[in-house]
C-alpha cells in the first residue's frame, strides 16, 4: 500500500480519538499518538482495534506496545499486510 | 476464582462499596445486586428533602459489578493468575428511571472485548420490578497499580 494512502487512512482512524485538533492538522509520520495527539492508553487500544478492522490484520501484544507513534504504526501495518 | 473470592478482592469499603452479591460470573459477563442503604450520606443533598440516587452512583454501581468484578475474574484466570485493578476510562450511560433510597437493583454486564488490557462492556441496571433504570457502555484498563497515572 502506498505510504500516503496508509497515512491518510490512519489519520481518519486517529481523528476519532485525538484531543489536539492542531496536532491532527499537522498529522505526519513523526506524530506521536500520546505526546502530540493526547490520546490516552484506553483510546490507543481503540486505535489499534480500528486499524485491525480497516486493514484486516491482527496486531499482537508486542506490536501493540511498539505502536505509540505514526511511523511505528505504519511500519507494523505494512509488515502485517506483506505477511497476508 | 469464585464469586466470593472476587468480592474479597474488591478495593472498596463502605460507604463506597456498591456490590452486595454476585449472582453469576464467567468469561463473558457478570450479574450482581446491590441495595441502596437509606442512610447513605449523599441522599441528604441529592436532592434537598427529596432523595434520589445520583446518576454517578448508578454508574459507579454498574462499574463495580460489571467492569471491576469481571476485570478481577478475567485477570485472575490468565497465566499470571494475579487479580488486577481496573481503572475506569470511559462511560456512556442513558438513564430511564429514578432509583430511590432502599431500592434493590440488579446489574447485568456483557463483555464486548478484553484486549490489550482494555475491558469494554455493555451494562444494564434493572430495579426490583424488572424495569431497566439505566444502560450503556463502560470501559476500563486493567493495571497492576491502584494509583497508576
Short description:
The complex is a heterodimer of chains A (84) and B (149). Chain A is an all-alpha fold and 84 residues long.
What does this structure look like?
The complex is a heterodimer of chains A (84) and B (149). With 84 residues, chain A is mostly helical. In chain A, 63% of the residues lie in helices and 0% in strands. Chain A contains 5 helices and no strands. In chain A, 25% of the residues are buried. A 6-stranded antiparallel beta sheet of chain B has the order 1-2-4-5-6-3. Chain B is α+β, with helices and mostly antiparallel strands and 149 residues long. Chains A and B meet through helix 3 of A and strand 6 of B.
Keywords for this entry:
heterodimer, A: 84 residues, mainly alpha, 5 helices, 63% helix, B: 149 residues, alpha+beta, 6-stranded antiparallel β-sheet, 2 helices, 38% strand, globular
SSE blueprint and pairings:
The complex is a heterodimer of chains A (about 80) and B (about 150).
Chain A: H1 3-15, H2 21-25, H3 41-55, H4 61-66, H5 70-83
Helix pairs in contact in A: 1-3
Chain B: H1 3-9, E1 21-26, E2 29-35, H2 55-76, E3 85-95, E4 104-115, E5 118-126, E6 132-143
Antiparallel strand pairs in B: 1-2, 2-4, 3-6, 4-5, 5-6
Count of individual beta strands of chain A: 0
Question: What's the pLDDT, averaged over the residues of chain B?
Answer: 93
Largest sheet of chain B: 6 strands, antiparallel
Q: What percentage of the residues of chain B does DSSP assign to strands (E)?
A: 35-45%
